[in-house]
Amino acid sequence: MDKIKDFIYDKNDVVIALLILVVAGFIIFWRLDIILEYPKTLVSGDDPAVTEPVGGDESLPPADDESNDADQSGDGTQTGDDDQTQSGDDTDVSVDIPLWDGGMLTEEVEVEVEGNSSESAVGCLIDEGLFEDYAEYKKVCEEAGLDHEKVAAGTFTFKAGTTKAQIAKKINWG
What we know:
Blueprint: H1 2-30, H2 32-44, E1 70-72, E2 77-80, E3 84-85, E4 92-93, E5 96-98, E6 100-101, E7 104-105, E8 109-113, H3 118-127, H4 134-144, E9 154-158, H5 164-171
Helix pairs in contact: 4-5
């Protein structure tokens, strides 16, 4: 009887450590699918650690059903569909401001990056005129030493004077 008691006493620490490893291995194996889906959660914006500006959508102007929204042309400029008339005035004001000048933004741009893949997330930036296409974004990332597939989800504000490399660094979580 003393031999069994001595064996248990001597091997107690090893048995407990092995038990902890088995339990941890079981939990990891059991939740492996969720662990592997986490990077997609980051890109889609479902991560609670990503914060949005206070005020949410209330700070945005109400959406119009009319086509007064700005369009993007392939040269990085934003133009209005129609000339816009200021309220109370009969003067027409044409909006034709280039978004890029000398490789820098000419105005502040806020964009919400979301999607299930890096291509769809970067699509949000392309829609805002920050990049022409995914190939350009990929090239900028490679030149900056970034992994083009690591795109963080969230709402980003880029100030006037920001370069494409700075944009890529800000949205890259790698």
